[in-house]
Design a protein that fits this description.
This protein has 16 helices and 16 strands. By secondary structure, the chain is α/β, with parallel strands linked by helices. The chain folds into two domains: about 5-20 and about 285-410, Transcription Regulator spoIIAA (2-Layer Sandwich), CATH 3.30.750; about 35-280, no CATH class. The strands form four sheets. A six-stranded mixed β-sheet has the order 1-10-11-13-15-16. A six-stranded parallel β-sheet has the order 5-4-9-8-6-7, with helices on both faces. Helix 2 packs across helix 12 and helix 11 (about 245-255) runs antiparallel to helix 12.
Length: about 400
């Protein structure tokens, strides 16, 4: 469990009225019931069930703050290895869902089992039911006009009462050549609560990242081919294939020319990266403290002229010798966002080992800091831990200082 030490030497700002906070897997009440996130190939998956996901979506809508949700499968992870922008988008997503049975298996192998697959194609029908129950307004963006129309007709037939406030199929074009202002205008005019974006990965994630803050919509979620499924243009794999993790085989058989080469290459990259991650993060625990601590920042008197100023409004999180699934899960009950600080520094001076859950924990702390308006950095990172971070292609995501004072200067 996290031990909170006296915050001597840290001046805390007086409590002030704050606007509604963005809801994420860490800052919501639902997080009390969830397990720890796990990083697979540098993407932090939230440890959520379908029921938790729906609860979070409701909280996001009620907060009226903008959020985006990623439904990531193996193809997402493979693309993120060579696409730095996609990797950054997945790091900053308010919720990353496990859309693939192979990822559930991978999480078990890496020591932190995700409870279940939460696929976008399964989530959308449940969102439609939420619309029936609570009157949430849904906008469908993407697919062809014909398929979008047929999907809307099938929704009206199969989900009477679901509110489709609008839909639009923009002309097929690269992201940089799309008429973004026209799309934003169409969405803003009907004021939906949820936008389902069906451009395919990574285009839909990049479009959402560009616009979700200014749309005035509480929830944007990339749904891939789900509109095609609802329209009846593409058949989903049989249930037994979904449960056996073979849905990708079905998709490849349906579109062999487009998908065969991509899926086979992706399968090789995924297997290689997963084996490397398992080898790197499967070490045994050294003896020593397992707790995460929140501690005062050391006084900077006597530091060099270039050192940071006194630690005003700075929170220091002191990591244990082994930052693994056990240590992180023991600390889950203390993950509530702290009062606003100017800096959040994660001190790894004692940490000699970090596993996939530990990396997922660091990613979520980074996001929590950003949501609370704080600058973030790591301090005193050992060579072994840094190699694990770089193996997952996360080096650019974690500003790092050799000391706490240096980390305060480099925090972003």
């Amino acid at each position: 469990m996290i031990t909170t030490l006296p915050l001597s030497g840290i001046r805390v700002r007086p409590a002030q009225a704050q606007p509604p906070a963005a809801v994420s897997a860490e800052s919501s009440l639902a997080s009390r019931e969830m397990g720890s996130p796990i990083s697979i190939m540098g993407v932090a998956f939230d440890n959520v069930t379908t029921a938790h996901t729906l609860a979070l979506i409701r909280q996001m809508i009620e907060s009226r703050c903008p959020h985006y949700i990623a439904t990531a499968n193996v193809d997402f992870l493979v693309q993120a290895q060579s696409d730095a922008e996609l990797r950054r988008i997945l790091l900053d997503a308010h919720l990353v869902l496990c859309d693939g049975t192979p990822l559930v298996w991978a999480s078990r192998w890496l020591g932190n089992p995700l409870p279940e697959r939460v696929a976008g194609s399964d989530l959308v029908p449940l969102i439609l039911r939420l619309s029936i129950e609570h009157g949430y307004r849904i906008f469908m963006l993407g697919a062809t006009e014909e398929l979008s129309r047929r999907a809307a007709e099938n929704i009206a037939k199969n989900y009477p009462g679901a509110v489709i406030s609008g839909r639009y199929s923009p002309p097929l074009a690269p992201l940089e050549k799309m008429d973004h202002e026209d799309i934003r205008r169409r969405i803003s005019e009907v004021k939906p609560d949820i936008v389902l974006v069906a451009f395919g990965c990574p285009k839909q994630e990049k479009w959402i990242s560009m616009h979700y803050r200014t749309l005035g919509v509480p929830v944007c979620v990339g749904v891939g081919a789900t509109i095609d499924f609802i329209a009846g243009a593409v058949r989903r794999a049989p249930l037994w294939m979904q449960k056996c993790g073979l849905e990708w085989v079905w998709r490849m058989l349906m579109e062999p020319r487009r998908l065969a080469k991509r899926y086979l290459k992706g399968g090789f990259i995924f297997s290689f990266c997963l084996l490397r991650q398992r080898w790197r993060t499967g070490g045994r625990a050294p003896k020593g403290r397992r707790n995460v601590q929140i501690a005062p920042v050391p006084e900077t008197a006597g530091a060099s002229a270039n050192a940071a100023p006194p630690a005003d409004d700075t929170e220091l999180m002191l990591m244990p010798e082994r930052l693994d699934a056990v240590a992180v899960q023991d600390s889950r009950t203390h993950w509530e966002p702290q009062p606003h600080r100017k800096n959040l520094i994660v001190d790894l001076k004692h940490t000699r080992f970090v596993d996939s859950t530990g990396i997922g924990f660091l990613i979520r702390i980074r996001r929590m800091a950003r949501e609370n308006g704080a600058k973030f950095a790591l301090a005193n990172v050992s060579a072994h831990v840094w190699r694990t971070i770089e193996m997952m292609k996360l080096g650019s995501a974690f500003p790092t200082g050799k000391t706490v004072e240096d980390a305060i200067l480099k925090a972003v």
